[in-house]
Amino acid sequence: ICFIPGGLDCSISFVSHVLGKVCIHGRQKEILGILVPRLMELTKSDCIWQRICWRLVECVPDRWMEAVVLGFVQQTPGADVLSRLLGNLVVKNKKAQFVMTQKVLLLQYGHTTAVLQNLLGYLALDSLRRALLIKALQELLETWSSSSAVRHSPPEQQQYISKAILICLSHLKESEIESCRQELLTSMMEGVKCHLDSSLPQIRRLGMIVAESISAKINTDGPVLKFQYEEDDEARELKSLLVQTPPFCAVPSLPDDDRNEKADAALPVVLESNDKSHTAAPVMLDEELDTELDSDDDLIPYDMSEDKEVKIKAPVYIRDCIEVLTGSEDMDKWEATIRALESLVRKNPEATREVSVELAKILLHLEEKTCIEGFAELRQRAQVAVITTDPIPVAKYLTSQFYSLNYSLHQRMDILDVLVLAAQELSRPKSHWKTKHSGAPKPCIQLLPGSDSSKDWRRIVDERIKSKTRRFAT
After folding, report:
1. Degrees (nearest 5) of the Cα angle 312, 316, 319?
2. Alpha-carbon Rg for the chain in angstroms
3. Residue among 356, 339, 345 at smallest CA distance from 317
4. What is the rounded distance in angstroms from the CA atom of residue 180 to the CA atom of residue 323?
5. Contact 425, 436 (CB under 8 A)
6. Per-residue pLDDT, 306
7. What value does the mean pLDDT take over residues 300-315?
8. Residue 358: which of 396, 317, 394, 406 has the closest Cα?
9. 130-136 long-range Cβ contacts below 8 angstroms, 24+ apart
10. Alpha helices (runs of H) in 125-180, residue ranges in sequence order
11. Which residue intervals of 199-330 are DSSP H helices?
12. Region 170-189: what's the mean pLDDT?
């Protein structure tokens, strides 16, 4: 490629095929590490070599275009050099346009910040390519303001998209901002809401920084958004992307040490002003917080020693219990109902039989809404009370549900436990009667007045038997 036959037309499509083939097989760093510095030197002052370089990349087949384009973007030291080497390739080739405006920005997030600056700076350097820059910004904002993308994409990708948005904003002109001001405002409002709703502090802070940057761009004269968040190296790096770094032309023949020294010398000029602007802010915040804390110390607390806890009355009817268990949002009333349900069922057997199957169904599917001590035991005792009050229909319902679909193993074990406990209770009716009616007056034999019960009890019993005995004679 360093020699062109004098006066003869030549085709470099073969060289393009070789370049694409080498890059697609994973050797793009080796070949472009030598080719790009050489092309940078040749195209610096020779327009013929610029056209040759453009033609070299344009003739790469589409199936290899992605590897070649990514290699050029990664190897070039700046957007102006990339523009000189690729020309308007992104406008002419659809595959290159897809890679540079869609795949690198929206589908991948492993590239460095320098790669994003090269790519988006390349789109901003020519009037034909600026339309693609604005289109890329719109698609980035659409992804950034999507609640689904915020919930399901990793934090690294969201940080990558935020960096791309800030770099795009740094390249916009006043006329372009004016033309899409309303769209920027809409995306900002939707995006900051999605980010603030996130449970991750990193995502919320990214939303705050990007929203502040968009607000500063569209409201240059009026008030802008301002959030309170921790200023660290990551936040300062993101904000520094809004300021364009002046392009510097690296000389290929220089050693790597000299090139790094020049690059390091160019950056502090831009970043110094940003550091100064950020160092004064935390001091003011600390002073404000101190004054707020001092003012809170002067407040006198209320005397709450006489306060009494308000007790919630439990329902007194079975149907009221059903309404509370199925639709009430009052957790205190719901808890009181659970605690009182067993005794209420045993005291009102007739009312329970009217809704026994419905109540059994509710208790079978009942879940713990609040943290109640002994909730499982309370629910089980209420189920046993219902089945012992109305055994036949409730037992039929529970046994039919045991083999039904959509029941967990825990619910099936609950059904078996309730049936076993209810059967045990029904098999001991005398003891149940004694425990249930222990306070009722016991029947006793009425003695005749004036008689001695210790001596005449046999006579009294015989007289009663005789009076109630009927005899038949033939």
Report:
1. 110
2. 42
3. 345
4. 55
5. no
6. 61
7. 67
8. 394
9. 130/176, 132/90, 132/91, 132/97, 132/100, 132/101, 133/168, 133/171, 134/172, 134/176, 134/180, 135/101, 136/101, 136/105, 136/164, 136/168
10. 127-144, 147-152, 155-171, 174-179
11. 201-218, 233-240, 256-297, 318-327
12. 87
Torsion, Cα 93 95 100 101, to 10 degrees, reads: 90
The model's pLDDT over 386-412, given as tens digits with 9 standing for 90+, comes to 999 999 999 999 999 888 888 888 888
- Condensed to tens digits (0 to 9), the pLDDT of residues 315-360 reads 888 888 888 888 777 788 888 888 888 988 999 888 888 888 999 8
Of 339, 386, 335, 340, give the one whose Cα is nearest residue 363.
386
Pair of tokens at residue 255 = 């050693």
Is the pTM here over 0.90, yes or no? no
Whether the pLDDT of residue 57 is over 70: the answer is yes
Over residues 300-307, mean pLDDT:
65
Q: What band does 7 get if pLDDT is binned at 50, 70 and 90?
A: low
- Indicate if the pLDDT at residue 445 is higher than 70: no
Distance CA 417, CA 400 (A): 15
Q: By C-alpha distance, which of 295, 301, 347, 303 is closest to 321?
A: 347
- Residue ranges per structural domain of the chain: 9-125, 137-244+261-279, 318-432
199 exposure class (CB count in 10 Å sphere: 0-12, 13-18, 19+): exposed
Q: Class of the 318-432 domain? A: mainly alpha
Segment 428-438, tens digit of pLDDT: 765 544 454 44
The pair of three-digit structure tokens given for residue 172, joined into one six-digit string: 């916009």
446 — phi, psi (to 5°)?
A: -85, 120
Q: With beta carbons less than 8 A apart as the criterion, state whether 57 and 67 touch.
A: no
The helix-helix angle for 62-75 and 28-43 (nearest 10°) equals 70
**CA distance from start to end of the chain:** 144
The amino acid that residue 116 corresponds to is L
What's the pLDDT score for residue 9? 64
Structure letter (DSSP) for residue 300: P
Residue 62 contacts residue 95 (beta carbons within 8 Å): yes
User: Residue 66's closest CA among 33, 98, 22, 27?
Assistant: 98
CA distances from 239 to 172, 174, 267 (A): 16, 19, 14
The token pair that represents 246 in the structure block: 């002046």
Report d(CA 188, CA 135) in Å as an integer: 16
Residue 278 — pLDDT band, cuts 50, 70, 90?
very low
